[in-house]
Amino acid sequence: MKNLSLTVKIWLALSMVSLLLYAIVIMSMPSLIRSFFTATLAEPPGLVQRNVLREQLPPHLSVRGFNIRSFILLEDGTTLPDQAEKLFSEPLYQQLKQNAISQQQPRQLYEYHSGPDQYRYNIRKDMAYGQPLYQVTFLRESEEDNFVATLLSRIILFAGIVLLISWLASLFIARYLTKPLVQMQQHVKRIANRHWHEPLVVNQSDEIGQLANSIETMRRQLVQQNNAQQSMLQNVSHELKTPVMVIRSYARAIQDGVYPKGDLAGSIQVIEEEGERLEKLVKQLLYLTRLDYLAYGNISQDKILLDKLIEDVAQRMNLQRPEITWQLELQPATVNGDEDTLRSLVENLIDNHLRHAVSRLEITLTVNHEQSEATLRFWNDGSAIEPHILSRLFQPFHKGRKGSVGLGLAIVQRIVKMHQGRISMENERDGVSSTVLLPLRK
User: 97: closest CA among 76, 83, 117?
Assistant: First the structure.
């Protein structure tokens, strides 16, 4: 069953249900038909045509052309029509009388077998003037069985035709249901082969339509991710090419005895600066790759005292620009996460705000009333960021003014997402602020 297609599975399921219903109908139909026609034939003879009565009666229940199919028996033995008991053998009549007097149900079927005589009769009990009255109706067993067999054969034929139609309908329904699934399967194969620019369109609002929408969303995200990767590769190539070209040109010039910076020391200083820039770029690229690996793996969930971590990083970095005034307001906050990545988060944000600050840098850490989220805010009094730049600051290799490599904020955003947090940057109070929201340790 596991190796069968979904179309075959749905068709088999619907067919098995149809077959089960068919079997139930066939198994229950004989008893239902027999009980129905037994009750019908037990009705008073006035409800049946006279010629039918004449054909169905046993021959020895007829006297001088008067056919007896049904008669009334009173409790004292009187019969209507009169002397109808003489038409029966004594054992049959005694059984009739005994069964009628002892019967508790309003209607009951009996059988009599004695040698060649075989009768099936029904006794219906009524009340007349406060006295019990029994109506006895005879049935011919062979005729009833033939009628039931004929009717049952026709019902089986009809049910077989219905079963065949239901199988064909099941096949049509199965193909109708699986057609969009086959379409999605082919589309996913094309996506797997990186042919993902053709959209998937399934005009359904049910679960299949929702699955198609999810696949289409995945396709769009893959297209965006591919475009982002292509853009990042181009930016990486450009960023790596510039320092490499400078280092090679300066090295060749020095080899030829030419010093582009006037002397040997100045030219070597340029080579060192470009080498340092190249080293920083490679380290950040490797760190981005490590973050991608951690994002798909299990990031460590250590207990991190965020306020102590910020205070430690701030003490080590405040000497980069001694002229800047620092203000720290840190409430105690404990989060779950990886200490190295959170330290990198704080270092990159402080480094970004230090480069743009004019005279002041503020760092605040607060906790909400529910003790469920910490808010980490950085603010510097530098110039405002243009709106068109503000919306793209977290993209890799996007540099603002005084930007270095253009990967710091991209690294920050990756770390925040890894810790189920949110980050935003905006112009605020004649300066620029960055706000990070992180869930607290439960």
Answer: 76
Sheet arrangement for strand 70-74: 79-80, 70-74, 131-139, 117-128, 107-114
In a shared domain, residues 125 and 212? no
Domain range for residue 233? Answer: 207-293
Helix (H, G, I), strand (E, B) or coil at 214: helix
Please write the tens of the pLDDT for every residue from 288-306.
Answer: 666 665 655 566 677 889 8
Three-state DSSP state, 97: helix
Q: Residue 212 in contact with residue 200, Cβ under 8 Å?
A: yes
What does the alpha-carbon distance between residue 150 and residue 357 come to, in Å, rounded to a whole number?
A: 101
Sign of CA dihedral 300, 232, 391, 194: negative
Whether 179 is in a domain gets the answer: no
**CATH of residue 88:** 3.30.450
- What's the chain's average pLDDT? 77
Q: Could you tell me whether strands 325-330 and 360-367 are parallel, antiparallel, or unpaired per DSSP bridges? A: parallel
**In this predicted model, what pLDDT tens digit does every residue of 41-84 receive, in sequence order?**
544 444 333 343 334 445 445 544 445 577 888 888 888 877 77
Q: Which of 35, 28, 29 is nearest to 120 (CA)?
A: 35
Q: Which of 91, 113, 139 is the last residue of a domain?
A: 139
Beta bridge partners of 301: none
CATH number of domain containing 398: 3.30.565.10
Kind plus residue range of the DSSP H or E element containing 41: helix 6-41
User: Which of 114, 139, 164 corresponds to the end of one domain?
Assistant: 139
